Amino acid sequence: MSTFNYIDIFAGAGGLSEGFLANDFKAIAHIEMNEDACFTLKTRLCYYYLKNNSKINEYYKYLRGEISRAELYDMVPGSLLDTVVNETLSEERMHLIFDKIDELMKLQGIDHVDLLVGGPPCQAYSLVGRARKARENKMIGDPRNFLYKLYCQVLVKYKPKMFVFENVPGILTANNGLYFADMQKEFRRAGYNLDYRILNASDFGVLQNRHRVILIGWQTQLNYKYPEFKTVKRDFTVSEIFSDLPPLQAGECKNKYRTVPTRYLEWSGIRDKDDVLTWHVARPNIDRDREIYRIVIQTWNCDKRRLKYTDLPEELCTHRNRTSFLDRFKVVAADLPVSHTLVAHISKDGHYFIHPDYEQARSISVREAARIQSFPDNYYFEGSRTSAFVQIGNAVPPLMASGIAKALKEELIMPY
Known about the structure:
The protein is built from 15 helices and seven strands. It is of the alpha/beta class.
């Protein structure tokens, strides 16, 4: 069997799914509650369909703005786009979601599920999120803590051979570890052996220090195991993400490459010779913030030192909080082998992700953020700039997802 299928729940913009699509898995369904992310998923499915049918130039017409999204979608079978289901996973909606998946399986002639993938929203498990809400003690009652129970319902219903559950390391200690213990018990009760590791996206070739819990399960009667992932050796620096892109000032947009791809962009597949640059747009920044950015950039570039908020000139310090989050202004250092972790908060402000060029003195663009996450340049994010940042910040890096997909494919082809 050359092609395996999967269901992706809590799909987001498709970072995890991208790894499986790139390795010839077939998507039965993507379940996602955010409308913009659903359009992003549909647009990505158009990319693969047109590429596989020797019509990729039609996709690039869309990226260049020569055709509308409706015209792009008309070029692919409607049944393909129907695999993206804009639904919120909840107890009240699960029966409707199951009906839709059943219908999709019937239409595709699929009678079994090979793989379930997904990671519930991680804010409830985030160590940072818990710190911010500690005083109000809101996390204990947060319904997102129990979304793994809905994941388990999908396991029980479709009995995939394997599953991948992704989340932040904070899930291991949330509520003193009780959530994670209960989660494992539920998964085992559903008929699965399982194991987990804290994996770093940088070990898969992503230029980012991003730790994630990757829990993998397999049916108890199958002779599978947790894959041994080999660390990707590389000699790249973060500068290779930025150097081929045109300089921007705050608020500018320039979608024309400055130079040929860097070694990293070619090696990773992030930029192809035929790619059309999109989303190289920087948010506006007020003058005070840009002045802070220049100080932060210069301090790193000259002294290799991260500046604390309390080190800034007093006239630039407008926050009353002088005791926590003192690293709220942080440059994405070009001379390091990896960036610090990209998070969805970049949608609210870019202070934690400052471009390393003193002359530009801005936060990173949407495309630069996507590259830090290892999204290819031909990956188009639908919606507003803010929405694109959220989609990117919440995603599993596609290079990491691809490494996981390759390893699981080797497991699935084993006789059982």
